Amino acid sequence: MSNINAELPRERSFLEERIGYRFLSAELLTEALTHSSYSNEHGGAKQFPCNERLEFLGDSVLSVITSEYIYERFSASPEGDLTRMRAELVCEKALAAFAEEIGLGDFLLLGRGEEKGGGRSRKSILADAFEALIAAVYLDSASTGDGRDAVRAYLLPLIDKRLGMLLNEWHGADYKTLLQQLVQRSEGEVLEYITVDEQGPDHAKVFTVEARLNSNIIGKGDGATKRAAEQAAAKQALVLFGELK
Question: Top-level CATH class of 4-171?
Answer without folding.
Answer: mainly alpha
